[in-house]
Every structure is written in structure tokens, then in C-alpha cells.
Amino acid sequence: MNKKGEDKVEKRKRAPNHPGGILWRQYLEPLGLSVSELAEILGVSRKTVSKIINERGSISADMALRLSRAFNTSPQLWLNLQQNYDLWHAVQDSDRWKKVRAVAA
To answer: Domain holding 77: CATH number?
Structure first.
């Protein structure tokens, strides 16, 4: 990541939404789907979907493919949501990465 990208992430005060919250608010609620119904559609356990919805689980590449098929979106949408969420938290949770010395311009 370049310095400009680092500055943007560091300056953002509020955490990005977890993809599970977006999945719940933008897809399950409007469509009237339950966690169990979505789990069946995706071919995964109810526990897996519940962890994501409750923001205790992450979107994997496999899950991104499943969600993209189920909701006619791109897998990149789900992976980008997860990446933005993870990166913001990594910046907030530790300063150790700032001590890394640049070895290339």
C-alpha cells in the first residue's frame, strides 16, 4: 500500500461496516430470508452464516463466490467489504506496522 492509501485508512474515524451487517440489512431482511434459509441456499451450515451475520466470522473467497451467485453480485464486492473492514481494524489495533522500514521506493 502506498503512503496515500495508508493516510486514507488512518484518517477514517469510523469503522467500515462488517460485510455480515450488510448481508443482513441489505439482503436477508428485505428478502425476508432467515439465517437457516440462507445457509441452505448457500450449502453451508447455519452456524457459518450466523457467525458472519453476527460479525464474528469473515467472508472467505469461497463464501464470496457463494454470496455472489445467490444475490447476483460480484465476489469482489464481498471480498472488498471484508478487506476494508479488516484493514481498518489492523490500522487501529496496532502501531507495530509503522516501524517497518521501507526497502523499495
So the answer is: 1.10.260.40
Measured distance CA(70)–CA(81) in Å, rounded: 17
Q: How far is CA 55 from the centre of its chain?
A: 9
- Positions in the chain short of pLDDT 50: none
Residues 6 or more apart in contact with residue 5 via CB below 8 angstroms: none
Residue 12 lies in a domain: no
Whether 55 maps to a domain, the answer reads yes
CA dihedral 53, 56, 62, 63 (to 10 degrees): 0
Give the range of the structural domain holding residue 38, as residue numbers without chain letter.
Answer: 17-91
